[in-house]
UniProtKB/TrEMBL annotation:
It comes from the Bacteria. Keywords: ATP-binding, Nucleotide-binding, Transport. NCBIfam families: oligo_HPY. This is Dipeptide/oligopeptide/nickel ABC transporter ATP-binding protein. One of its GO terms (molecular function) is ATP hydrolysis activity. The lineage of its organism: Bacteria, Bacillati, Actinomycetota, Actinomycetes, Micromonosporales. Residues 238-276 are annotated as: Disordered. Gene3D superfamilies: P-loop containing nucleotide triphosphate hydrolases (3.40.50.300). It comes from Mangrovihabitans endophyticus. Residues 257-273 have a biased composition (Basic and acidic residues). Belongs to the ABC transporter superfamily. GO terms for biological process: peptide transport; transmembrane transport. The keyword Disulfide bond does not apply. The keyword S-adenosyl-L-methionine does not apply. Residues 8-252 form the ABC transporter domain.
């Protein structure tokens, strides 16, 4: 859970109400090696906040982050330090994530020194640098090592950012919209690279995207967020082919044809009807109720919590259509007609 305090104005000071942006509320997720989990939602759904929480870039309001079962809460503690190496982030913007005044060699050498305590053996360091660029298919490496970021394309820069993450020999990558700023024509290549790396190094990958079509293509599991809450989760095939939550259906209906991955559009954010709600005063009950075509009276007052639905284990939805009492009588899909 992450709430951001809002600077209080005079009126709120006088009324003594404190307000906060409820960016992420009660989201649970597990990453496993060799698996990709997609976190899908519109801008403002809280998905980047989840990534930043997992990257420990800012503190949680509530909850815990564990690595192999050990809490990483204590800053500077052993588990925290392990976590900082084993979990690496790939940012959305490959133009901002590399320092323009330094060469690729500098960026990768620095990462190797920090994470692998690379010493002064220059031949060994050179081998490690070549190996890193090889892994992300920037070959021959000597063509790229002494270039500056501005001399590379966006896709090449994102590959360097991925190589830098790999320098830590990580178990998990947190990739926040890793291809959304790249040309449509090269997105698939970068996603395929990530998939190959997942296989080769048995990585856990969190893939954050607003594009549910790419989640189906790339991820084993998909979690959908709306207004800071998890609304549906399960294996990607189930969530994208038999979506249970009305919001997931809306996302799929408004997405480009999921079978045509090459169409992965950069502008598919916020295509659904209506606007995401305020996270300072989120709607009572189900946060999706103002936009939901299926809304019932109780949806405006009672918050639905995730329950396991349907006959596929691990398929979760937070929606009153799947009230525990009615799940058995009303399988997913039948409620949608
Ligand atoms: Fe719609 Fe109600 Fe389900 Fe929310 S709980 S998604 S408003 S039917
Ligand atoms: Mg974002």
């Amino acid at each position: 859970t992450k709430h951001f305090p809002v600077r209080r104005n005079l009126r709120s000071l006088m009324s003594r109400t404190s307000s906060a942006v409820h960016a992420v509320d009660d989201v649970h997720l597990a990453l496993r090696r060799g698996r990709v989990v997609a976190l899908v939602g519109e801008s403002g759904s809280g998905k980047s906040t989840v990534a930043r929480l997992l990257a420990q870039l800012y503190p949680r309001t509530d909850g815990d982050i564990k690595l192999h079962g050990a809490s990483t809460t204590v800053k500077g503690g052993r588990a925290f330090r392990q976590y900082a190496t084993r979990v690496q982030m790939v940012f959305q913007d490959p133009f901002a994530s590399l320092n323009p005044v330094h060469t690729i060699r500098y960026h990768l050498t620095r990462a190797l020194r920090i994470h692998q305590h690379a010493g002064s053996d220059t031949a060994e360091l050179e081998r490690a640098l070549h190996e890193l660029l090889d892994r992300v298919a920037l070959t021959p490496p000597e063509r790229y090592l002494d270039k500056f970021p501005h001399e590379l394309s966006g896709g090449q820069r994102q590959r360097v950012a991925i190589a830098r993450a790999l320098a830590a020999n990580p178990e998990a990558l947190l990739a926040d919209e890793p291809v959304s700023m790249l040309d449509v024509s090269i997105r698939l290549g970068v996603l395929n690279l990530l998939r190959d790396l997942k296989e080769r190094f048995n990585l856990a990958i969190l893939y954050i995207t607003h594009d549910i079509a790419s989640a189906r293509y790339f991820a084993d599991e998909t979690m959908v967020m709306y207004a800071g809450r998890m609304v549906e989760a399960g294996d990607s095939e189930t969530v994208t082919q038999s979506p249970a939550h009305p919001y997931t259906r809306l996302l799929i209906d408004s997405a480009p044809d999921p079978d045509r991955i090459e169409n992965m559009a950069s502008d598919s954010t916020d295509r659904g009807n209506g606007e995401p709600p305020s996270l300072i005063h989120p709607p009572a009950g189900c946060r999706f109720h103002p936009r939901c075509p299926m809304a019932m009276p109780r949806c405006t007052t009672d918050l639905p919590t995730p329950i396991e639905i349907g006959d596929k284990p691990g398929h979760w939805a937070a929606c009153w259509l799947y009230d525990e009492a009615t799940v058995a009588a009303q399988p997913p899909g039948s409620a949608a007609a």
